Amino acid sequence: MCNSPENNALGLSPIILFVLLVVGSGIITQDFNTMPILVAFTLSTAYALMLNRKDKTLSFTDKVELFCKGGGDKTIILLAMIFLLAGAFYAVTIDIGARDATVNWALQYVPTDWLLPGLFIITSFIAFAMGTSMGTISAITPIGIGLANSLGVPVPLAVGIVVGGAMFGDNLSFVSDTTIAATQTQGVKLRDKFKANLLIVLPAALVTVVILMFVEINGAGIVTPEDYDFWLITPYLIIIVCALLGLNVITVLGVGISAACVVGISKGIFTFPTMLHSIQKGMGWMQDMVAIALMIGGIVALMQAYGGLQWLVAVIKRHVKSRKGAEAGSAALVSFLDVATANNTIAIVTSGPIAKDFSHQYDVDPRRTASILDIFSCGFQGLVPYGGQLLAAASLAGVSPFSLTPYCWYPMLILIFGMLAIATGLPKFKTDTSHIKS
């Protein structure tokens, strides 16, 4: 019904309309909350359904079917499940006092100047172990919010730190879907991509830590051991252990919710009915995010069916003329696709074969190509306000996702260091074939 559509720039316009609606209304009213994101996506969906292919007319029924298939993609459904479980975990841990207990523990045992850098480092470590930025953001954002309230720093700042740490760990993790996608599409080994990636992103992480050490803190009151109950912290400790064991993100969140419920009931904080209501309340907080995820999946499917994504690929391919151009072209392609689809894994999988052709044609080391794909997709994914990561974090924090982007310093820095790597040709690798997967 929709194979090989003709390239069509207009096919990308639904996502452009969404950005114009949200950003435009925010600029006009000086308030980025003026246009609700769900409403903006609804209007963009309606507009997308009015478009069509250049070479073939699709019926309205065909377009609705494409939209529904896109919204029902396994990646989108997994994202929706993570949203719901994250909301439940957040609500239950707040209701039993786990977040406040964890923050009070940190204020007592971690030096004040290291609380914000420590939040970034711990989040990075958990994301590296868990292999998912979404699961990490869901688990650690409540702690970041609690720290922000205690230290007198803006909540978006603390949440931006969590997002940055999650993207750092996810970008390097051996079990991350983005890492697997990047290595599989370029035919390189995981460890070689890790080494290449680390040399580019580690400086960005170190700069982030240094910047966070100079953030002015207004609060940081002194607490005593009586101010918290260590047992309330155990749900967070348990999910960290589960992450280190390499469990699936759904399993990690499920175990975390169960642990929080057991603690709540054993401490007399919950009755069984109030526990169930707490879980339902948290899931209710995330219902808008689930609807947005479904709409994003549907819009992306329509943009692809109309030839919008194919047009983007063709435009970038025409401008690649050299080795450095091939690297820049791969970076630009995966970046634009991530902005268009709001999904870094989809962006890598879609751009991977084209980037591999660039590598072969212009003699680019595939380890560098795999690193570039992962770095630029993760960088933009940590900045796009309508991406799953910022939507989840913003929903948990009760703020606009647009308020988080200015504080996502690490994603900005990895894009800068990624561009420097392309411009300088560093790091360089010995020419051999041992990195290629058999």
Automatic annotation (TrEMBL):
<comment type="similarity">
    <text>Belongs to the NhaC Na(+)/H(+) (TC 2.A.35) antiporter family.</text>
</comment>
<dbReference type="GO" id="GO:0005886">
    <property type="term" value="C:plasma membrane"/>
</dbReference>
<feature type="transmembrane region" description="Helical">
    <location>
        <begin position="34"/>
        <end position="51"/>
    </location>
</feature>
<keyword id="KW-0813">Transport</keyword>
<keyword id="KW-0050">Antiport</keyword>
<dbReference type="InterPro" id="IPR052180">
    <property type="entry name" value="NhaC_Na-H+_Antiporter"/>
</dbReference>
<keyword id="KW-1133">Transmembrane helix</keyword>
<keyword id="KW-0812">Transmembrane</keyword>
<protein>
    <submittedName>
        <fullName>Na+/H+ antiporter NHAC</fullName>
    </submittedName>
</protein>
<dbReference type="InterPro" id="IPR018461">
    <property type="entry name" value="Na/H_Antiport_NhaC-like_C"/>
</dbReference>
<feature type="transmembrane region" description="Helical">
    <location>
        <begin position="196"/>
        <end position="215"/>
    </location>
</feature>
<feature type="transmembrane region" description="Helical">
    <location>
        <begin position="236"/>
        <end position="269"/>
    </location>
</feature>
<feature type="transmembrane region" description="Helical">
    <location>
        <begin position="289"/>
        <end position="314"/>
    </location>
</feature>
<dbReference type="GO" id="GO:0015297">
    <property type="term" value="F:antiporter activity"/>
</dbReference>
<feature type="transmembrane region" description="Helical">
    <location>
        <begin position="76"/>
        <end position="94"/>
    </location>
</feature>
<feature type="domain" description="Na+/H+ antiporter NhaC-like C-terminal">
    <location>
        <begin position="239"/>
        <end position="424"/>
    </location>
</feature>
<feature type="transmembrane region" description="Helical">
    <location>
        <begin position="409"/>
        <end position="429"/>
    </location>
</feature>
<keyword id="KW-0472">Membrane</keyword>
<feature type="transmembrane region" description="Helical">
    <location>
        <begin position="375"/>
        <end position="397"/>
    </location>
</feature>
<feature type="domain" description="Na+/H+ antiporter NhaC-like C-terminal">
    <location>
        <begin position="18"/>
        <end position="215"/>
    </location>
</feature>
<feature type="transmembrane region" description="Helical">
    <location>
        <begin position="9"/>
        <end position="28"/>
    </location>
</feature>
<feature type="transmembrane region" description="Helical">
    <location>
        <begin position="114"/>
        <end position="131"/>
    </location>
</feature>
<dbReference type="Pfam" id="PF03553">
    <property type="entry name" value="Na_H_antiporter"/>
</dbReference>
<keyword id="KW-1003">Cell membrane</keyword>
